[in-house]
Design goal:
Order of helices and strands: HHEHEHHEHEEEHHEHHHH
Radius of gyration: 22 Å
Number of helices: 12
Shape: elongated
Helix content: 40-55%
Largest sheet: 5 strands, parallel
Distance between the termini: 37 Å
Number of strands: 7
């Protein structure tokens, strides 16, 4: 006798949601323009638009750097910008340059000199077509060796008389600042920098409501007291807020409640 596989329980219908609002993936639809994130986004965007050469965004684990960068990249006009994203830069030195070429859609292989020439030709071709070239390196603190950072710095030597041919965007955890500070030649090249701080309780409320709205729910599902409990438990870290809110919605749907209150949050947090 065959036993039917159980249908997985989802809470979207109970709460009137179109999708789950607190998934910990960098989906640009769920970018919430908080004051801190918007300040960071505007600084990075300024560095790109003004061709400043290099910009750096740092923040704690789970602070929303990657989501912010994906939202920013998505809104850079393809008719104006050629953007490459290096999401996993923890590569050996011999593979690092090749990965950059690959992300720009260029052939990989040959000597280092040939690869650098190929990249230079691509940058010049973009400039002649009115395209700005942007290289985004996420999790840049995982770059294996400092001499790879020096290779990255040398990419900014691709210039015309009046402009950089490449804008470098470095994203990383706080230790990235420490590593860059130990490389003065690179540190001096970073024209724009910003560090994302954790949310306060008001920003936590705005963030939660913004994610819910993006998922199709306009009403407040979390009471003020519930949000305060979420803030205290997560410390205002986006990734932790997402995880706790997701479980609260699941538990609330199982309990057939119509809102998330403080006792529910505390109960879920205690078992999480």
């Amino acid at each position: 006798m065959l036993i039917a596989e159980p249908v997985p329980f989802t809470y979207e219908q109970h709460w009137g949601l179109q999708t789950q609002p607190f998934e910990n993936v960098p989906d640009p639809r769920f970018y919430v323009p908080s004051v801190k994130h918007e300040e960071a986004r505007q600084r990075i965007l300024y560095g790109i638009q003004a061709r400043k050469g290099a910009v750096m965004l740092t923040g704690e684990i789970g602070s929303g750097k990657t989501l912010l960068s994906r939202a920013l990249i998505l809104n850079l006009a393809r008719a104006k910008y050629d953007v490459a994203l290096l999401a996993n830069p923890s590569l050996p030195e011999k593979q690092f340059l090749g990965e950059i070429l690959y992300q720009f859609g260029l052939p990989v292989g040959g000597s280092k000199a040939m690869q650098l020439r190929r990249l230079n030709e691509h940058l010049l071709s973009n400039a002649s077509q009115g395209l700005d070239t942007v290289l985004v390196i996420d999790e840049a603190q995982t770059i294996l060796e400092d001499r790879i950072f020096d290779e990255v710095r040398l990419l900014m030597n691709y210039q015309m008389n009046n402009r950089f041919l490449l804008t470098l965007v470095l994203l990383g955890q706080p230790e990235l600042r420490e590593r860059i500070a130990g490389i003065p030649q690179l540190m001096q090249r970073i024209a724009v920098r910003y560090h994302l701080e954790r949310f306060d309780v008001v920003e936590t409320q705005t963030y939660i409501q913004g994610r819910l709205a993006a998922a199709g729910c306009a009403r407040r599902l979390f009471t003020v007291e519930a949000v305060e409990a979420i803030y205290r438990h997560t410390g205002g870290v986006c990734r932790l807020i997402n995880a706790l809110c997701d479980l609260c919605l699941l538990s609330g749907a199982h309990g057939n409640v119509d809102h998330i209150d403080r006792p529910l949050v505390l109960r879920v947090a205690a078992s999480h």
